[in-house]
Amino acid sequence: MKITFDAVPICSDKITGIGWCEVGQTQALARIHPENKYEYSFFTSGDNERIKRVEGFAGENIDMNFSHFSGYLYRAASTFLPVPYSWFFGRKSDVTHFFNYIVPPFVHGKKVVTVHDMVYKAFPETVRGRTRFMLEMGLKRSMKRADIIVTDSEFSKSEIVKYFPQHEKKIRVVPCGVDTERFHPCTEPGRIPEVKKSLDIEGEYFLYLGTIEPRKNLERLITAYGHLAGKLGDKCPKLVMAGGKGWLNDGIYSRVERLGLTDKVIFTKYVPSEDLNPLMCGALAFVFPSIYEGFGMPPLEAMACGVPVLASCEASLPEVTGDCAVICDAYSVKSIAQGLYRLCTDEKLRKELSRKGIERAKGFTWEKSAEMLNAVYKDLI
Q: CA-CA distance, 374 to 380, in Å (whole number)?
């Protein structure tokens, strides 16, 4: 098979979870199924740095197919006009896979699209305006154009069926994996204090890693942490919040100020990829009380590192964490605070969750994910 991967999610200098999902699946596919021919397709807008970034992921196993035209202009135009994708990337592929919701018009061969979640329908108020507009305008047509719709969890499948029941037979669940080269129990303990110093972190800390945005439930997390800090005083670990700024986040930052927690809650600068493992492994526990996730990569990455996890019982998170995390009610500040207190004071619990988390994470590999994706492609052809 000749398989094209739309590389838009991996062109940016700051890759999100969607991009890392594409990297994990495509690199594993190229590695374990070399009988296929693969390529990354993307618009460069004349930016050579984009080409270098994608080349770094492509390695020797994945070819490059790029157009110097502006991707922004193409996406804007194709929202309203049927500008053929094949004009820019040819008609040689058997399958083209789009990893970020939208299938453009007139793509040659079979078309696969990954729809990660339905947050723009379930919690529209938490989604950036232009993103919501793009999905409202394009997703219905995109799913109609697709031959197969891939999603990350059984929860997300049920959500897609709820809003688009006509496409139920097209949907295939392909869970994400975890990159154990990036996320694993610490092998260089000396790196932990180095990274902490670079981020102005002192002493023990809880870690949140993800976008700073409302659907991550961070205002309730901060309020719950405030209760814990009031109870434990100087013995309370810091709360480190690492991740890019998302949509409607002013209330998150102002909550810290209103509760007088500016000396205890640390919003980090951008954390380079090579620093994520030491930052994760240095945490007392990882906290992720999100109200909506299509899969929930960060808790899985923490589990792979052997870091105990606090997660909510919402959306897909129970599929990921199983019985290997402290589970809280996302809508209860008291429940979140109780979970933080348990993790802070019960060393035996932390060790047990660490052991169980490492074992559970072994079941989520990119190789397994890639095999499932390869089966989807073979069924199409």
A: 10
> Residue 270 burial (CB < 10 Å; 0-12/13-18/19+)?
exposed
Residue 155 burial by Cβ neighbours in a 10 Å radius (0-12, 13-18, 19+)? buried
Given the candidates 3.40.190.10, 3.50.50.60, 3.40.50.2000, 2.60.40.420, the CATH classification of the domain at 2-177+365-380 is 3.40.50.2000
Q: What is the pLDDT of residues 328-375, one digit of tens each?
A: 999 999 999 999 999 999 999 999 999 999 999 999 999 999 999 999
* Six-digit token string for 110: 């079979």
CA–centroid distance for 322 within its chain: 18
Looking at residue 248, its pLDDT comes to 58
Which pLDDT tens digit goes with each residue over 103-157? 999 999 999 999 999 999 998 887 878 888 889 988 999 999 999 999 999 999 9
Assigned architecture for domain 191-361: 3-Layer(aba) Sandwich (3.40)
pLDDT at 235 over 90: yes
Rounded Cα–Cα distance for residues 10 and 15 (Å): 6
The domain ranges of the chain are: 2-177+365-380, 191-361
- Alpha-carbon distance of 162 to 118, in angstroms, equals 10
pTM: 0.90
Confidence at residue 201, expressed as pLDDT on a 0 to 100 scale: 95
- Are 2-177+365-380 and 191-361 in the same CATH fold? yes
Q: 95-98 and 110-114 as β-strands: parallel, antiparallel, unpaired?
A: parallel
What's the pLDDT at 298?
A: 93
Asked whether 18 and 116 are in contact (CB, 8 A), the reply is yes
What does R_g of the chain's alpha carbons equal in angstroms? 21
Question: Exposed, middle or buried, 348 (CB in 10 Å: 0-12/13-18/19+)?
Answer: exposed
